[in-house]
Amino acid sequence: MVRIPACHAGGRGFESRPLRQHPTKQMFCLSKTSVFYFPVFSPISAIYKPSHEGLFSMDTIHSNCSLGGDVSQTSPIPPHVSASGHDLSPLSDVERERCVSRLNEEERRVILHQGTEPPFCGGLLANKASGVYHCRLCDLPLFRSDAKFESGTGWPSFYQAFDPEHVRVVRDVSHGMIRDEIRCARCDGHLGHVFDDGPPPTGQRYCLNSVSLSFVENS
pLDDT at position 76, please? Predict the structure, then answer.
């Protein structure tokens, strides 16, 4: 039996229910319509809050992983790992400060304050070497050289990200335009913008600032 603190919304609430064991997962049955699965060896738990519709959402994850254990104990939230195997957990304040200290003035203007470098001036625009383009701030892999193409815009352009989870899209309404800004999913550094006028197979054009990137050539 797993004891879960009662929550109420619209006169309804969760009750404690038996924990059914799965070969690789723990299963918490919290209502007739809500079943949450977690790995047996991941320290997890759930704190739920009522939504305005009377349903419940999981806010925070923390508990021990022993069967029938007390879910009130707090443990660190496991890191978010992308499909390509990279840790996407946000940088700590100390890590971010250390990374920012390595940036020059122009890199800070673009990466931290959503600036744009002049066209046809970026150091990586004409780069033809084979390798991977990383985030200048946190070093997360962002784009492969084989997805780079000549767009004629004056900025390095790619039709596909290294991993879709590594790039975050944010609505940008600055300068009297509506655009899709792209940021590093881990450090939130500004990269550029993405447009729907790219080549096959994706039809997308990721338009990047060279100063937002570092290049790691294949050995």
Answer: 62
Q: What own/partner pairs with CB < 8 Å and gap ≥ 24 does 168-175 have?
A: 169/194, 172/114, 174/114
Q: Helix, strand, or coil here: 122?
A: coil
Mean pLDDT of 200-217: 97
Contact between residue 88 and residue 142 where contact means Cβ atoms under 8 Å apart: no
pLDDT for 73: 54
The CB density around residue 122, as the number of other CB atoms within 10 Å, is: 19
| 61 CB neighbour count, 10 Å cutoff | 18
Q: How far is CA 84 from the centre of its chain?
A: 12
Q: Which of 135, 138, 187, 207 is catalytic?
A: 207
Q: Is 121 a catalytic residue?
A: no
Tokens read off for 150? 């000549």
Instruction: Identify whether the C-beta of residue 192 lies closer than 8 Å to the C-beta of residue 185.
Output: no
Q: What is the pLDDT of residue 40?
A: 38
Whether 4 has a pLDDT exceeding 80, the answer reads no
Going by the DSSP 8-state scheme, the letter that residue 160 receives in this structure is S
- Shortest CA distance to 209 belongs to which of 117, 121, 138? 117
pTM: 0.65
Q: What is the overall mean pLDDT for the chain?
A: 77
Domains contained in the chain, CATH given: 1-78 (no CATH), 93-217 (2.170.150.20)
